[in-house]
Model the fold of this input.
Amino acid sequence: MKKIIALILSLSMTLSLTACGGSPAPSTSSGDTFTSTNTQAKTMKVSIGVPESHFEYVACEKMKEHIETSTNGSIKVELYASNQIGNDQEVFEGLSLGVAQMLPCGSDIIGNFCPEYSLLSLPYLFDDIEQVDEVMTGEFGQALLDKLDELGYVGLGFGDFGFRHVTNNIRPIETVEDMKGLKIRTMTVPIHLEMFEAMGANPTPMNSSEVFSALQQGVVDGQENPCSNIYSNKYHEVQKYLTLDGHVFTFVTFVCAKDWFESLSEVEQTAIREGVDIATEYMSQACTAEDETALEAMIAEGLQVTELTEEAKDGFRDAVADVRDRNGNAINPEMYQQMMQAIEAAA
Done:
């Protein structure tokens, strides 16, 4: 009997030890799930509409370097050029779903969701880039960024893309009367269409991919873009005349989804804001420099360039004054007045 009891006790102890040893001990290696989860860098995908050769992409590279360095790698920034993730509208709508975490978005696109951004599409607002930067980094620019908060976004700053100018194949444009009857390709921005109609032209919305062949075949007489875009797209090769009228200044707005941004630490948020400041400052300088370089190159290749006199430019401003005032007051009369006062103070 004693031998049987001893055998039973022995078997019980063996089974108990086997059960306790059934699960392996937690790993303390660098591959430990707990450690990895808590040290894994947060990924910030940035969707960029331009190719890697463009100054906006270079600006974003500078932003990336600052963010990753300032956060000691807690944020890893991934840049996706040439609409790899989607076009501006698709990505803007998808930020809250995590398709990307940041987007330098065309202000005309944001205007489809936040009407106040359409104020930036109004004609002949600014005289030079110094005035642009003073207004957009001041109280009005911040008020515009704050508007995005209501939509679930964080607006971080404005990147310069440059003044838009008109080219054509029919005649030099020296006065607003010279615009009469010209068929000009434009973006699909309603205010832009009204503006060219008010100047006597026939605006023709068209995808950018179709513009070169349309100019080459005479489907349209001309187009409008910043000088750097005109040159990089080789429009000057199928156009004779360029007029530096500067009818609209083009921006991108650096935007994040609010929920994602607010999930970050204060240090990470500060690093991102500083990174965007670095990017927008670079874009302001590069935009001016690249437009000047492009203009010089196009002149050297035979494009005839007209610089408007102040009297002639006043004629353009007068022609579109109703378009500007009517649309500005319809969008948001208080913010329109705030913008115009800021522009006048910066003149």
Remarks:
- The beta strands are 42-47, 75-80, 102-106, 153-168, 183-186, 202-205, 222-225, 241-257, 304-307.
- The domain at 41-346 is CATH 3.40.190.170 (D-Maltodextrin-Binding Protein; domain 2).
- The chain is about 50% helix and 20% strand.
